[in-house]
Amino acid sequence: MTFWNGRIFVSSLPLARPLDVKTLLAAGAGLEIFAEGPRWRDPENGLRLTRTLLRGYNGPLSLHLPFYDLNLASENYPALRDLTLATYKQFLGVAAELHCEHAVIHTHAYTCPIYDPAQTRQRVKNLLPLLAASARQAGVKLAVENIGRGPTQLFDSEEYVHLFRELAGVYALLDIGHAFLNGWDIPRVIWQLGDKLVALHLHDNHGQADEHLPIGMGSINWRLIKEALALLPAPPALILEYNEETRPNRLLADVHRMQTVYQAGSAMGEV
């Protein structure tokens, strides 16, 4: 059994001030850069600002690729699929420039109805190898996140696990909050993904909405998740993906507590 190795990341989503980012990085956290919003309309501008912010930082990074207005699985608009594919390839280049470990993508727009799930899944499966090839060229792992709820999730837990057995060069980023909303057996999925699991998005909810609450503020059984992670031969990155209302001092406290409880082999729920 292995316990955590201290590789704890925070998402930049709730971090509005550069000082907040620098404080968390100084505390030993890695950073997942959320490439959305006005700063990233021009990827070169976003890259330039990020380099300035991270000057002197040599710790681990990941990049969450944009997904607003994009849809890799669009049923009726091939031009939108092509645009999404081109945008993802462009941002994989950004991830390479920043020396990110992995880049996170969404497979589809989960606010849109899925009229033919089987055909839509196949469309995505046809495109993912193209992105995987671009990721390999960029030296970045392509990490596919589980998204959607109920009929808007394109892959249920079994289909999600099978995706990474079927496609080479594609890795899993398991979003714990999303999995909980869909009633997945999360410890089983973690075990089944094995070395295909490169990272987890950690946030809590009460089983009714995607709240992105800090750990311990919802209904998720974090002890079971931690026990499942301890069985993996190599632990994935843990990424705190809290909502935009989360105060930076809460994030900082959770980083410190998680570092402490993992060193002690305690339960994640004690955070």
Task: Explain what this protein looks like in three dimensions.
The protein is α/β, with parallel strands linked by helices. It has one domain (8-270): Divalent-metal-dependent TIM barrel enzymes (TIM Barrel), CATH 3.20.20. The chain is built from nine helices and eight strands. The chain has helices spanning 18-26, 43-53, 78-97, 117-138, 157-166, 176-181, 186-193, 222-230, 248-264; strands at 8-11, 30-34, 61-64, 102-105, 141-145, 170-175, 197-202, 237-240. The protein has an eight-stranded parallel β-barrel, surrounded by five helices. Helix 4 links the parallel strand 4 (102-105) and strand 5 (141-145). Helix 3 (78-97) runs parallel beside helix 4 and helix 7 runs parallel beside helix 8. The radius of gyration is 18 Å and the shape is globular.
